[in-house]
């Protein structure tokens, strides 16, 4: 900002004062040119944006958010579907581990032991490990958080490994405990030491909402070492507890419910009276006639399809319900908002594929799958799968079943079903042939153990050779075109050629698919 005439006049007498005036005016102009979102005025009047911490906000609203979200999932089909879609994609059939110590003998032993243990790992005795993954993921999405407690067992219990897992809802955590304790402190039932490391979880012995637990005085709580608990939730800020994933659209879900109920009541009300038969005398007098049904009984309440008669009625007048539009548009717009709040594609939430084609649905799923991939590797595996594997190897080592309490592990999340399986398979083949992906990685992406798959392939090939069978699917004996394999490029021109098929020109297929759609 340039100096004005008054600044120049002051500068001729006191240049330092004039310079300070110009600099102060520049600083003021900078402040007034700040963020529009931080401006104060009529448009932002009533906008409450407290600067409280995440823990403070969750401490006030967390329990109510859980209760309302659970009610919506119980009674609102769209909330139930959103939770199901997220769980099915994050966990699916299960996130499977495989030992990766580099010692093939040890890895096979650990994998076999883990496979036997998964069938007996549920402290309730109903689910296997992958069923528990689904339950835990569902609680994480619906309630915002879930606790998994390690339960060590006696060797006399007859378990493959003396360990089981107990799933506890977030309500077991005593949120009323927030205080200083020794050199540490407690935040909503989670105890931290002086360095900010989790030291214990204060848990109720019974669910606070259970009538039996309340009768038995189950509202008391006691600390459980943090090493015994896996706390699974999404961290959106530096928070110690989670919130339901559908929290941003709880009001939208409720408003949509209310709108549909109001629309249904209006339609029922309009349909209650089909026609009324009026008499001449009553019409001339302008007095409401006595209305009776076909048997002469006075009508005191209406019902759908009713034809009412005024005494001496000769003139019949039909009810004409008003036609109102916009219901479909409003509901579609509301569901778009709800799907955005749950971070689920609209098409997966509603099953409505009327406005998509091959290219658009594939592009929409790419971003969703990237989000699911991040949740699996950055949230669910480190918060649940990794602690469970550590507990398992420690318990197996303590029982003398494996030589070390630490066994490296690799995880295989469930595969994503392809929109076009042929194209995805060809993409994997090209990646393997170009060296950008290994065969083991391709198998793991399908949700299988590469070692087990390769061993099964070797066993199948050996059996085919022993029986003298040659199948068209055996690349050792048959080329891609179905002729006998010679492995000689001079006599086998198809040996190094790309596979023939309808997708030879992959770049043009999406456009062709769009035209077909």
UniProtKB/TrEMBL annotation:
Protein's UniProt name: Phage portal protein
Ranges where the record places region Disordered: 475-517
Transmembrane segment boundaries: none
Coiled coil: none
Molecular function terms from GO: structural molecule activity
Protein's GO biological process: virion assembly
Organism this protein belongs to: Paracoccus siganidrum
């Amino acid at each position: 900002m340039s100096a004005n005439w008054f600044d120049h006049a002051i500068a001729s007498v006191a240049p330092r004062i004039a310079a300070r005036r110009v600099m102060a005016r520049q600083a003021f102009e900078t402040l007034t040119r700040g963020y529009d979102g931080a401006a104060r005025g009529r448009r932002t009047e009533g906008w409450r944006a407290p600067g409280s911490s995440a823990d403070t906000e969750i401490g006030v609203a967390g329990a109510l958010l859980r209760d309302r979200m659970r009610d919506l999932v119980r009674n609102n089909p769209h909330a139930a579907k959103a939770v199901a879609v997220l769980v099915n994609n994050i966990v699916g059939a299960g996130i499977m581990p495989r030992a990766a110590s580099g010692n093939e003998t040890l890895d096979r032993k650990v994998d076999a032991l883990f496979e036997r243990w998964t069938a007996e790992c549920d402290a309730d005795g109903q689910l296997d490990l992958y069923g528990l993954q689904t339950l835990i993921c569902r609680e994480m999405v619906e309630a915002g958080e879930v606790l998994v407690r390690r339960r060590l067992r006696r060797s006399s219990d007859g378990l493959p490994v003396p360990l089981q897992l107990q799933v506890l809802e977030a309500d077991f955590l005593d949120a009323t405990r927030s205080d200083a304790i020794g050199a540490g402190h407690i935040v909503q039932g989670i105890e931290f030491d002086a360095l900010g490391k989790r030291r214990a979880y204060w848990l109720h012995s019974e669910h606070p909402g259970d009538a039996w637990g309340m009768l038995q005085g189950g509202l008391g709580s006691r600390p459980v070492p943090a090493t015994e608990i896996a706390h699974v939730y999404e961290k959106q800020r530096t928070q110690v507890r989670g919130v339901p994933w559908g929290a941003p659209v709880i009001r939208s879900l409720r408003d949509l419910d209310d709108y549909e109920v109001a629309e249904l009541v209006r339609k029922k009300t309009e349909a209650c009276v089909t026609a009324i038969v009026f008499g001449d005398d009553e019409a001339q007098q302008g007095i409401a006639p006595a209305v009776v049904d076909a048997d002469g009984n006075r009508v005191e309440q209406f019902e759908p399809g009713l034809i009412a008669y005024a005494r001496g009625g000769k003139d019949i007048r039909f009810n004409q319900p008003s036609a109102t539009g916009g219901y479909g548009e409003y509901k579609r717009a509301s569901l778009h908002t709800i799907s955005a709040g749950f971070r689920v594609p609209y098409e997966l939430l509603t099953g409505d594929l009327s406005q998509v084609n091959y290219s658009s649905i594939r592009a929409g799923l790419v971003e969703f799958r990237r989000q699911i991939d991040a949740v699996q590797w950055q949230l669910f595996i480190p918060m649940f799968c990794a602690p469970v594997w550590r507990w398992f190897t420690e318990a197996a080592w303590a029982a003398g079943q494996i030589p070390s309490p630490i066994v490296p592990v690799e995880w295989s999340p469930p595969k994503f079903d392809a929109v076009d399986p042929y194209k995805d398979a060809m993409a994997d083949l090209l990646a393997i042939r170009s060296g950008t992906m290994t065969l083991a990685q391709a198998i793991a992406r399908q949700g299988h153990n590469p070692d087990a798959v390769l061993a099964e392939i070797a066993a199948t090939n050996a059996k085919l050779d022993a029986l003298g069978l040659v199948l068209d699917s055996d690349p050792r004996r048959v080329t891609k075109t179905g002729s006998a394999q010679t492995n000689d490029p001079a006599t086998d021109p198809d040996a190094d050629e790309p596979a023939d098929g309808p997708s030879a020109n992959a770049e043009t297929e999406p456009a062709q698919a769009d035209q077909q759609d």
